[in-house]
Design goal:
Elements: H1 2-30, E1 40-45, E2 51-56, E3 61-64, H2 68-74, H3 86-89, H4 96-100, H5 121-126, E4 131-135, H6 140-150, E5 154-157, H7 167-180, H8 183-204, E6 214-218, E7 230-233, H9 236-239, E8 244-245, E9 254-257, H10 260-266, E10 270-274, H11 278-287, H12 289-293, H13 296-299, E11 303-306, H14 316-330, H15 340-352, H16 357-364
Parallel strand pairs: 3-4, 4-5, 6-8, 6-10, 10-11
Antiparallel strand pairs: 1-2, 7-9
Helix pairs in contact: 7-8, 14-15
InterPro entries: ABC_Transporter_SBP (IPR050902), ABC_transptr_periplasmic_BD (IPR002491)
Organism: Desulfosporosinus metallidurans
Protein name: Vitamin B12 ABC transporter, B12-binding component BtuF
Length: about 375
């Protein structure tokens, strides 16, 4: 009897071992055993032209300087961030990536932050990141110095020309994706932005220049809030839809101040006001109502609110949302299928994982017609 039992066990043992192996394979296929990405050395050329070697994918990141953290969140890297700048912790209406990821404010501080500050090497080293992403704060030489002092790879990012969102921006998004192991997500983000820009442009490309309304945007933020005389040439929401921005005839690019008398001579058909500076416009209206009442846009009730998108560099998703709203106002026929609120939430949802229009409306008034003097 013992011999028979021993023989049966000998026959069954290989089958039991195979069953056990099969069970393990089944568990892996079901996703209960995490797949560990293989870490390997990788060389990248950052946007300052520096060759940086680091082990990818990284697990711990920091992002310093205007706009750097925003690009990390686009690539779904918020969970890898181990510290943020103090400036990111302060209340700042319209900084959409912080609305989407409020828990980032609970992370340790890695320095004051801001466009005119120097990186805090001690604070950066203290949170032990695998990489430091940086935008605007440093040039090639300073990036090399920061890397040497901290012993941490420093990767310089760029938004490129903020008026057009050029390839530098797309390369930055792609580079972050490679470094944090989110290549597919980065590819999707770049494709989405390019498709949005293409869609906006194609809607109005057949409209003759002579049939376009003259438009102006005032109260544009520029290192602080300003009144109606603060404007922007090559204003992205207008550029994307081929609108006739009266300021572009100056030949300038970016934000600057004009004389109010120049606005009267331009006399735009449609006036957009940045919500960030709207309070200053209403105050100025009370002091000089005749100036405003002389404008055709004010007479005809063609004054509209725009959600500010410049907040610690460009909130790209809000700039696109503004573009669709401006298109709906300036080119109603070409944008008749667009609901600006739904479109905005679609953009916020894709890029930041959360529909944020209601929060933007709460803080900044949202998309609406404005009535000066009331």
């Amino acid at each position: 009897m013992r011999k028979v039992m021993a023989l049966l066990l000998a026959l069954l043992m290989p089958m039991l071992l195979l069953a056990g192996c099969g069970g393990t394979a089944g568990t892996k296929e079901a996703g209960t055993v995490p797949t560990v990405a293989k870490v390997q050395k990788h060389k990248i050329t950052d946007l300052a032209g520096r060759e940086v070697e680091l082990a990818v994918p990284v697990k711990r990141v920091v992002a310093i300087g205007p706009g750097a953290l925003r690009l990390v969140t686009y690539d779904e890297g918020a969970s890898m961030v181990v510290g943020i700048e103090e400036i990111e912790k302060k209340p700042s209406p319209g900084r959409s990536y912080m609305l989407a990821y409020p828990d980032l404010k609970k992370l340790p501080s890695i320095g004051q932050g801001g466009p005119d500050t120097a990186p805090n090497e001690e604070s950066l080293v203290g949170v032990k990141p695998d990489v430091i992403f940086v935008s605007t704060l440093v040039d090639k030489e300073k990036a090399n110095q920061l890397q040497a002092k901290t012993g941490i790879p420093v990767v310089v990012l760029s938004y490129g020309n903020a008026a057009t969102f050029d390839e530098n921006l797309y390369n930055s998004i792609s580079m972050i994706g490679v470094i944090i192991g989110k290549e597919k997500r980065a590819q999707d983000v770049v494709a989405y932005l390019k498709q949005s820009e293409k869609d906006l442009g194609e809607r109005t490309k057949g409209v003759p220049e002579g049939n376009k309304a003259k438009v102006y945007v005032g109260a544009v933020g520029m290192k602080g809030v300003h009144g109606i005389e603060s404007t922007q040439a090559k204003y992205p929401p207008f550029m994307f839809i081929g609108a006739k921005n009266v300021v572009d005839e100056t030949g300038k690019s970016g934000s600057f101040m004009i004389d109010k008398e120049k606005l009267i001579s331009w006399d735009p058909d449609i006036l957009f006001l940045d919500a960030g500076g709207y309070a200053l416009v209403t105050e100025d209206y009370k002091k000089n109502p005749a100036l405003y009442q002389s404008l055709s846009a004010v007479k005809k009730g063609q004054v509209y609110n725009q959600i500010p998108y410049n907040n610690y560099s460009t909130n790209i998703e809000t700039a696109f949302a503004d573009s669709y709203y401006a298109g709906k106002i300036i080119f109603p026929q070409q944008f008749q299928d667009i609901d600006p609120i739904k479109k905005s939430d679609e953009i916020y949802q894709f890029l930041l994982g959360k529909p944020l229009y209601s929060e933007m409306e709460r803080d900044l008034g949202g998309f609406k017609k404005l009535e000066l003097g009331r």
